Amino acid sequence: MSESKTTTNHDEIRQWAEDRGGRPAVVRTKGEGGILRIDFGEPEEELEPIEWDEFFRIFDDNDLRFLYQDETGGGKNSRFNKFIDRKNG
Description:
It comes from Mesorhizobium muleiense. The protein is of the alpha+beta class. The protein has one domain (about 5-85). It is built from two helices and six strands; from the N terminus they run E-H-E-E-E-H-E-E. It has helices at about 10-20, 50-60, and strands at about 5, 25-30, 35-40, 45-50, 65-70, 80-85. The strands form two sheets. It has a three-stranded antiparallel sheet. A hairpin with a 5-residue loop joins strand 2 (about 25-30) and strand 3 (about 35-40). The longest helix has 10 residues, at about 10-20. The relative contact order is 0.27. The mean pLDDT is about 90.
């Protein structure tokens, strides 16, 4: 069974994403920031590439945690990830 973990550590998040070919991205919303995503290269029209600095500014400003899996149930690298509220997640 695969296990989910959470972190707020910027270095861990960046390393996890880059190990899987992911890059920081955002879906822009009205107002400041947007919805954070890790872009793995699949075509998604609304994804806008951003720099890690902006990514982590939005991450911290919204008081988020990164929920992720290292491996799938079959032992392969997992790309499962989600951004959750630090207070309620």
